[in-house]
Amino acid sequence: MKPQKNSILRFETIGSTNRYLRENIDVLETGTVVVAEKQTEGRGRLGKNWNSDNSMLMFSMLIKKAEYPKSVGLAAAVSVIKALEKLYKINALIKWPNDIIAENRKVCGILCESRIRRDSENTDKKYETDVICGIGINTTTKNEFFAKNMLPHAGSLKSIYGIDADREILLNGILTEFFPLLDESFTAIKSYYAENCLTLGKKILIVTEKNKTPAKALDITEEGFLVCESLSGETFTVNSGEVSIRGFNGYF
Ligand code: BTN
Fold it and tell me: What is the pTM of this model?
């Protein structure tokens, strides 16, 4: 359920905004947002680091008892797309599961982590899922930073479009889109997502440490899996915690 009012906690420097929420999850209310100017141990998907300086908008949101846990990441990606469109007329796209790509550069990464626990209240549901959704957007990051951190496919709003995005306005724009979306069904969120997705309906490469498997991306399940079709026509699913996706003819 959408929280009535977000409390926003601000830090100059923090280890990781996602970790802060995880460590304090029991005393924080749903809808809490943590924003940091700088992270010293920022975390990315697939166990990677998210290196940063103070040129990024970095924040995490806590959604307790998520109605549709797997739609939180999709809703976050959709909110970033919508906010970039409304504020700066930028047409960005989503690469599954929730990277935001503009002009063939990754401008934003999203890391969702969840905690499943027994329902403390006596409701019909046996388990509840709390989700922590962290978003990092390269606002004014310079190409030198990406080169130094070996991120050849990254870009920032400033490096691509010359836009000096006000991080506060961007944050508010995303929060305004995100929380109302959580009241929508998985199908409704997925349909916004699919309209702006680089992956669905496309030929892709599924990359693991050992293999690169060509396939066609068909759909996303309610469990968050990507449904694919192999070259021989078999349908199978992949999990975002285990694979990376590349475009068939290029990185994205
Ligand atoms: C990825 O693309 O790998 C996801 C990156 C997510 C980075 C954000 S920055 C704010 C939040 N706190 C973290 O430690 N990570 C996320």
Answer: 0.95
pLDDT tens digits, 146-183: 999 999 999 999 999 999 999 999 999 999 999 999 99
Q: What is the pLDDT of residues 111-129, one digit of tens each?
A: 999 999 887 665 666 889 9
Whole-number Å distance, alpha carbon 211 to ligand 1 midpoint, is 26
Could you give the CA distance from residue 96 to residue 21 in angstroms, rounded to a whole number? 24
Average pLDDT over residues 187-195: 94
* Helix, strand or coil, per DSSP, at residue 188: helix
Expressed in angstroms and rounded, the spacing between residue 232 Cα and the centre of ligand 1 is 36
CA nearest ligand 1 atom 2, residue: 109
Question: Pocket residues for ligand 1 (CB within 6 Å)?
Answer: 16-18, 39, 42-45, 48, 50, 58-60, 99, 109-111, 134-136
171 vs 193: CA distance, rounded Å:
20
Sequence-ordered alpha helix ranges (H) in the chain: 17-23, 71-88, 143-148, 157-161, 167-181, 186-195
Q: Which residue has the least CA distance to atom 9 on ligand 1?
A: 136
Q: Which atom of ligand 1 is nearest to the CA of 41?
A: 14
Ligand 1 center–CA 195 separation, angstroms: 24
Residue in 20, 23, 44 with CA at minimum distance from that of residue 33: 20
Q: Can you tell me which residue has the tokens 């669905």?
A: 200
